[in-house]
Amino acid sequence: MKIPIHRNEPQGIIKNLFWNQQQKIAPYLFIAPFYLLFVVFMGYPLISSLVMSLYEMRGFQSRVFVGFGNFTDLFGDPIFWKSLRNTAYFAVGTLTLQLPIALLLAILLNSKFVKGKNLLRLAFFAPVLVAGVFVAIIFNLVYDQRAGLVNQEFLLFGKEIGWLNEENYVMPAVILTGVWQWAGFNMIYFLAGLQGIRQELYEAAAVDGANWWQAFIHVTLPSLRPVIAFVFVVSMIGSLQLFDLPFILTNGGEPADAGSTIVMYLYKNGFQFMRLGYAATIGWVLFFIIAVISIVQLKLLGIFRDE
Amino acid sequence: MFRLPIDAESFPLGKGPMVMLILFFISTLFIFGRSEEQGEDLEFWIFANTHYEEYQARVPIFEAQNPGVNVQLINFGGTMHDKLLAAMLSNFGAPDLVEVEITSIGRFLKGAIDEVGFVDLRPRLESEGWMDRLVVSRFTPWSYRGRIFGIPHDLHPVVLLYRDDLFKAAGVEMTEIETWDDFIAAGKKATRDLDGDGKVDQYAIVLDRRTESDYFSLLLQQGGGFFDADGNVIIDSELAIETLEFFTALFNEHKIATSVYGTWHGDPSNFAAMQDGKILSILAPDWYVGILKSQVPQMSGKWKAVGMPAWHPGGRRTTTRGGTMVGITKQCENPDRAWELLKFTYFDRPGLVNRYETTRIIPPLKAAWDAPIFKEPDVYLGGQPLGELFIQLAPDLPPRYQNPYWSEGADLLNDAIFAAVTEKQTPREALTDLAEKVRALMAKDRGRWGDM
After folding, report:
1. CA B30 to chain centre
2. Does residue B175 register a pLDDT over 70?
3. Is the CB of A255 less than 8 angstroms away from the CB of B209?
4. What mean pLDDT do residues B224-252 have?
5. Is B326 in the same domain as B253?
6. Same domain, B135 and B281
7. Mind telling me how many Å the CA of A248 is from chain B's nearest CA?
8. Average pLDDT of the segment spanning B325-345
């Protein structure tokens, strides 16, 4: 297509300028929508919440500058520390229980000996498709003290355990629910990783006399390192952002804040107590925790290593 | 023939985007054109399904009586309060009328009294003489610093619902119980190990030790509260401490109370325990009877109701739990019209009778109480006229003073009750700590903003 050039008219000079510059301008125009959306929906709220964390709101219109007052208040707040402990408990429980189960399921579904793989894949993945709110409602019935599936059917514990009624059982109940919901999701990542491992590596290991365990340790796990790192970091971030499941399952973190998490405490402060500055502070502290843990994890798992 | 200046082939991205663009313009014109043609809109936000269904049936009558008025009822369910908060914070998008739940209203009262997002309804109530026609104590949950920000939807008086058959089998006639001391004596007879396996098979009462619901109901019955009428913290008063001592003693000393099964009184687990005969009585507001009827219909005829045991002979036999208000927001452009709709949904006798029929909720409008429906025998309670009992107790309803710090306070009160019942702290320690925390929070805010 020919571009008309108007050399001698006054408007033509402007058009010429535009067309001369267009190669420089065009890339910026193409990426502008992303940056525009980023600034409106991410950049502005981020900066705004950072500013908000230095203020405290009172009602709908008044706010006062408190500097780092919200941060010092937060570090002396026992419910924050309890929520942080619960969140860490969930994260550790998730990583130590859910990820090995997900890997095990992936290995089983990747083996030649298992029949009906598609059906099993669907069955393990299906819980992810259920909204967190419904999962919480379903598991409320599962953990029911008298009529619930766990206490009624398994009778593993010889007594009516108040899974959601006694402090010590609340977080284990939340962790088990999380495992049920997300193990299948992580299984898919591991499965994709397993299918990407070259068969020749196993053949070479077999030639070297490696048994299945040695092949798993020396071939499978190192080959899965990037996938493990990704799943680890994503699961950790997801765990630290835990909210809807315990909020509904424990009726807002009760009893005695045994089910309270950081994001739940953030929500309560922001929306129930109308302490928006304090809630923004919790959000920023959570951001730093996630950032530090993620960097440490990636470092430990060797993702920054040059190979 | 008319031709478009551009055809589908030469449109930059082809036919599809062109059709979408044309549809977009047509629908935009339609939407904006339509709202221009309509008369006055009144938006009414609701969070409870039963309320929504009631108003949905009655709004056409209001619209017929007020030509040109179009009422938009929007049921947001449980997320409504957060949406309202966002609308009030941004000063944009709030409805004309909105219903607010009793545990949520506190957060809307934060800040300077003039900044509260609801219209003060006291002048209208007083000038039209409504104050005397409603149960006056029921305005306290919706009032702050002399202003009334909402009209009560309900009273929610509480009765003691009990298993007459099982109490009688234990040799107890519940109609003879007058005080909590009487109840403890009766409860000790009725709390029993029936099969001799060393485990208690039936408890005289079920109470919630996870949240403030039962304890706070008992405290209100005594005339206590978390805050007094002037907004002072009184949760560490001798009355509050004695009430918590009594509450914990029901579990730990007298051993006649069992903790609620599941997470609250409406949990299926709790209903299962009731059906097993493990629970012999429960403190029940009017709305809870409605829940029992719909969730455990198979227990019809097994329950009976009496006024709550009093703290001393001749004392108050009821308390209150839960509640909803309707308020007019300051973003409403025509508060007069909104007030008319409010009166139509809240003060209209036939509507209130219909409300009782479907939800068993006793209305705060005293003029509605003489309707025959309130005297009708209730099949679920073996023919006992439950409405009559509620109405008999309603005038004695205790006040429940509202405060902007209620949400924070209630959250901490839950922890204090649990700590006391599980004997991690004495009731005195638990409530003293709680009161100190809330006072410190209030003092810190006063230091920042002054007395607002």
Report:
1. 41
2. yes
3. yes
4. 97
5. no
6. no
7. 10
8. 96
Cβ-Cβ contacts under 8 Å, B449 against chain A: 58, 62, 64
Q: Examine the domain organization and report whether B71 and B177 are in the same domain.
A: no
Q: Do B411 and A271 touch (CB under 8 A)?
A: no
How many beta-carbon pairs below 8 A join chains A and B?
105
Evaluate whether residue B2 is within a structural domain. no
The string of pLDDT tens digits covering residues B249-304 is 999 999 999 999 888 899 888 898 999 999 999 999 999 998 999 899 999 999 99
Residues B292 and B229 in one domain: yes
Question: Which residues of A are less than 8 Å from B149 in CB distance?
Answer: none
Domains of chain A and any CATH numbers: 10-52 (no CATH), 71-300 (1.10.3720.10)
The count of domains in chain B is: 2
- Is B38's pLDDT higher than 60? no
Give the Cα separation of B283 and B24 in Å (integer): 57
B448 contacts on A by Cβ (under 8 Å): 56, 58, 64, 66
pLDDT at position B2 over 70: no
The DSSP 8-state label assigned to residue A259 in this structure reads T
Render pLDDT for B96-117 as a digit per residue (tens, 0 to 9): 999 999 999 999 998 889 989 9
Among candidate residues B124, B110, B49, B128, the one with its CA nearest the CA of residue B287: B49
Taking only the tens place, the pLDDT of each residue in B132-173 is 999 999 999 999 999 999 999 999 999 999 999 999 999 999
Whether B260 and B380 share a structural domain: no
**Which one of B91, B408, B411 makes the best mutation probe of the A interface by having the most chain A beta carbons within 10 Å?**
B411
Vertex B269: Cα angle to B274 and B51 (nearest 5): 90
SS (H, E, C) chain B: CCCCCCCCCCCCCCHHHHHHHHHHHHHHHHHHHHHHHCCEEEEEEECCHHHHHHHHHHHHHHHHHCCCEEEEEEECHHHHHHHHHHHHHCCCCCCCEEEEECCCHHHHHCCCHHHCCECCCHHHHHHCCCHHHECHHHHHHHEECCEECCEECCCCEEEEEEEHHHHHHCCCCHHHCCEHHHHHHHHHHHCECCCCCCCCCEECEEECCCCCHHHHHHHHHCCCCCECCCCCECCCCHHHHHHHHHHHHHHHCCCCEEECCCCCCCCHHHHHHHHCCCECEEEEEHHHHHHHHHHCHHHCCCEEEEECCECCCCCCCCCECCCEEEEEECCCCCHHHHHHHHHHHHCCHHHHHHHHHHHCCCCCEHHHCCCHHHHCCEHHHCCECHHHHHHHHHHHCCCCCCCCCHHHHHHHHHHHHHHHHCCCCCHHHHHHHHHHHHHHHHHHHHHHHCCC
Q: How far apart are CA A180 and CA A98, in angstroms?
A: 8
B-chain residue closest to A60, CA distance: B89
Kindly give the interhelix angle for B180-190 and B238-252, rounded to the nearest 10 degrees: 10
Q: Which domain holds residue B63?
A: 37-156+322-396
Q: Please check whether residue B294 lies inside any domain of the structure.
A: yes
Return the SS3 of B278: coil
Interface of B with A in 95-114 (CB under 8 A): 104, 107, 110-112
Domain membership flag for residue B242: yes
Check whether residue B412 and residue B275 sit in a common domain: yes
ipTM of the complex, rounded to two decimals? 0.83
The Cα of B210 is separated from the nearest Cα of chain A by a number of Å equal to: 5
What CATH number is associated with residue B353?
3.40.190.10
Nearest-CA distance from A251 to chain B in Å?
7
pLDDT along chain A (307 residues), means of 10: 53 71 83 93 94 88 89 95 96 92 93 87 91 88 80 64 88 94 94 93 92 92 91 91 92 90 95 93 95 88 67
Looking up tokens 């008025």 gives B69
In a domain, B41, yes or no: yes
